[in-house]
Structure formats: C-alpha cells, structure tokens
Amino acid sequence: MSTASAGGAAASGPPVPPADTPPPGASGPSGPSSASGAPGPSGAPGKKPRSVLGTRSWVAALFLLPALALLGALVVYPIGYSVYRSFLDASGDGFAGVDNYREVFTDERIRTALKNNVIWVIVAPSVATALGLIFAVLTERVRWGTAFKIVVFMPMAISMLAAGIIFRLVYEQNPDRGVANAVWVGVHDTFKAPAPFPGAHPRDDRLLTEAGGAFTTRTVVKAGTPAVLPLVGAKPKDLKGAKTAEPPREAAGRVTGTVWRDFTRGGGGTPGVIDPGEKALKGVTVEAVRDGRTVASATSAADGTFTLPKSADGALLSLPASNFAAPYNGVDWLGPSLVTPAIIGAYVWMWAGFAMVLIAAGLASVPRELLEAARVDGANEWQVFRRVTVPLLAPVLGVVLVTLMINVLKIFDLVYIIAPGASLDNANVLALQLYQSSFGTDVNQGVGSAIAVFLLVLVLPVMLVNLRRIRKERQR
C-alpha cells in the first residue's frame, strides 16, 4: 500500500531529466548561445562591453582629452622643445651638437652650481627630515604639542620670496640689524669682554704706535713722576657716564698717571694737559714693560688715574691693543664660505614643519602595542625609538625624503634673494644658473636648455624610485 502511494506520487510530479542532460538554455555545441544576437557580458545583446565603473572607454577618453591636451601643451611640448633647443647655438639658427652639454660640465660657474646642488640634495632633505622626526616624536609627550606643531608648520604659509627677504635681514652683518649676528655677538661678548674704547689713539707723539696696535711711551717712567697718557678718538657712546679726569696723584715709590680723552667740546684747551671738563677713560689696561717683558700692570679707575708698583720704575708704559680693538662684528654668514649653509638653514626653517606633519600622521598609525611590548621587554626609550619607531616609520620617512629631494633640485628663489651679489656665484645652483644662462647678461638659451635637460635627467631617477615605492605600497 505504501509502495503504490509512493509510485503514484512520483508519477504525478514533474519529469526529472537524466543526469547527463544539460539544462534548458545551457550553451552547448548547438545551443542557443551559439546563435547570433546572444547577450554579451553586460547582459544586453549586441552592445560593447563597459568598464568596471560602467563607463564606455570613448566617454572616459572624451573627458580626459582636455586634461591630456593641457598636459601636452604645458609639459610634453616644453620638454621636447628644450631637448631640441639644447642642440642649437645661442642664436637658435645653427646646430651646435653637444657643445652646450660640453659647456655644462666645463664652465666653472656651472660646475660650482652642480657641486652646490649635490650639497643641497644631501644636506637639506636629511636635516629637515631628521628635525621633523624629532619634533613629531617629542610633541607626542607634551600637552602643548599641537601649539608647537602649529608654530613649526607656520613658515610653510610664507612664500619663498618672503622667506628670502626675512633671512636676508636675519643674516645681516651689522649686529644692530641682523638677528643672527646680534645673538652671536651677545654670546661672544659674554665670554670675552669687548675693548673699552675701540678706535681711540694717541693725541700727540708722546706715545708711539707699535706693531699690532699697542701704544708705548717714548721714554721710561720714574717713581714719583706722574705720567700723562692723552688719547683722542674715543666714541661718545663709550663715554656715557664717564667722570671728569683727575690729575695723577704722587705716591712714594710708585708710578702713577692718568688716561683721559684730551678733547674739549667747542674747541680750546691745551694739548697734553687735563683741562676742566675733559673725560676720564675708565678700564684702560696699562702695562710696565722692561726688556720686552711685562713687569707690572694696572687698570685705570673711574677718574682715569692708575697706580703701578715700584717694579715699574724705569720701565716703558704700554697701552695694549686690546684696549682699542674694533668690536667683534659677528660672522659673515653671507660670505663666500658660509652662504650655502646659511641658505640651507633658511630652507630647513621652512620645510621642517612639512616633514613634521607627515611624520606625525604616520606616527599616529603606529600600533601602540608594539611600543609597549618593547618597553615591557626592557627596552629603554632610545632603543624603542631606534629599533621600533623608526623602522615602522620607514615608508613615511621615504616619502618625505624623496619629496624634499625633488624640491631642492629645483631650488631657485631662496638663493637668488638671500645671496648678495658678491657671493652669488659661490651660492649658485643649477636652477639659478638656468635662469642666468637663459635670461641673464650672457644670454645663451642653448646652454640654458642643456641645463634644463640635465636637471630633468637628475630628477627622473628620484621620481622613478618614488613610483616604485608607490607601486609596492599598493601591492601590500
């Protein structure tokens, strides 16, 4: 009974095709899909395939055409024309061959520019990246880190032209105007006192000028006979608060004297005599010299007087050159030897903030568990920084370093603005030489085009390294 019911149910259901029979509509040797008008991959019969985004290729090309035309007009054509122009002479009418490229490697100014570019590529990106890394790591540990980052990044908002003008003033030689030399002179004068009366000199022939700038009496001095040492040329600013000079007082067995400015305002007065109102020179060192050896020394008091011991009897009095030496004027930052490091310092001031921001962004994505695990394992902060933080930040550091290297190869405006005319050839770089060769006094656009092509060749390896790095990042 149950068997019959099961058979009836099977008979009344839909027929089941054999296992080796393809389902209806399936493609086969003579199936429907082999017929013309079969639907394509997009599902619509007879239509061309679409891209992944659902856009036909010719539509995408139509939208890209204006950008491609602009790219060709502003990039491809200038590059091609520069290569073509680099093989022509200065007039552009004759073929020069490789003469322009030969001049690039033989001209002294261009070789200096190439040497400076090597210094720029090595020093500037490395220093800016290192400072950015230090700032990014240290500002994570302070509450006011965000404010510090804003201050460090702020120079990026200043144009190269404005930064050049700022640092031209910073590196001014005069300490009263240049900030760098004002600080440097302040530090120097803290450890070495400046001369009390720079530029002062004898009034008459009582004092002889020695080699090195010292002044010495013509005759020896005797104990009990006062010595007068009149000087002129002391600057009014060095005499502020000076007292009136007093005649020397006799002291038994000792040599006494007075050092003063032998000048009476408004004229008059007697040379070599202390007239009323004449100012004392305080702090002048007076030495007693016998047989080329200093046997005694003293310093003039506020009223200009000085007293030497009995050992000075029969010696010559000498006023050392240190009393009258010119004031320390700081460092010649924009001189031939320091102009390139000084300009690199201005560049680092601008771009260290850029490096800091990118590295800080990469540091924010570093897993804190790894840092804590290293500390738990006994690593100190320097070991954590060197063996964990820096390796994890290596991709970001590479991006910053490559970007800055490409940037410094094109450096122009900072050098042109900061370097004075006397040091411009010493600070020369390829981009600046390109401008001078193409539009300067000795115009030769053939050489300028050769320099441009050479710069392109220098930039290409850095760009290729950057592209390879980007591709590797995408494959991860």
From TrEMBL:
<feature type="region of interest" description="Disordered">
    <location>
        <begin position="1"/>
        <end position="49"/>
    </location>
</feature>
<protein>
    <submittedName>
        <fullName>ABC transporter permease</fullName>
    </submittedName>
</protein>
<feature type="compositionally biased region" description="Low complexity">
    <location>
        <begin position="1"/>
        <end position="13"/>
    </location>
</feature>
<dbReference type="GO" id="GO:0005886">
    <property type="term" value="C:plasma membrane"/>
</dbReference>
<feature type="compositionally biased region" description="Pro residues">
    <location>
        <begin position="14"/>
        <end position="26"/>
    </location>
</feature>
<comment type="similarity">
    <text>Belongs to the binding-protein-dependent transport system permease family.</text>
</comment>
<feature type="transmembrane region" description="Helical">
    <location>
        <begin position="346"/>
        <end position="367"/>
    </location>
</feature>
<dbReference type="GO" id="GO:0055085">
    <property type="term" value="P:transmembrane transport"/>
</dbReference>
<keyword id="KW-1003">Cell membrane</keyword>
<keyword id="KW-0472">Membrane</keyword>
<feature type="transmembrane region" description="Helical">
    <location>
        <begin position="447"/>
        <end position="467"/>
    </location>
</feature>
<keyword id="KW-1133">Transmembrane helix</keyword>
<dbReference type="Pfam" id="PF00528">
    <property type="entry name" value="BPD_transp_1"/>
</dbReference>
<feature type="transmembrane region" description="Helical">
    <location>
        <begin position="388"/>
        <end position="409"/>
    </location>
</feature>
<dbReference type="InterPro" id="IPR000515">
    <property type="entry name" value="MetI-like"/>
</dbReference>
<feature type="domain" description="ABC transmembrane type-1">
    <location>
        <begin position="114"/>
        <end position="466"/>
    </location>
</feature>
<feature type="transmembrane region" description="Helical">
    <location>
        <begin position="118"/>
        <end position="138"/>
    </location>
</feature>
<keyword id="KW-0813">Transport</keyword>
<feature type="transmembrane region" description="Helical">
    <location>
        <begin position="150"/>
        <end position="171"/>
    </location>
</feature>
<dbReference type="InterPro" id="IPR050809">
    <property type="entry name" value="UgpAE/MalFG_permease"/>
</dbReference>
<feature type="compositionally biased region" description="Low complexity">
    <location>
        <begin position="27"/>
        <end position="46"/>
    </location>
</feature>
<feature type="transmembrane region" description="Helical">
    <location>
        <begin position="57"/>
        <end position="79"/>
    </location>
</feature>
<dbReference type="InterPro" id="IPR035906">
    <property type="entry name" value="MetI-like_sf"/>
</dbReference>
<keyword id="KW-0812">Transmembrane</keyword>
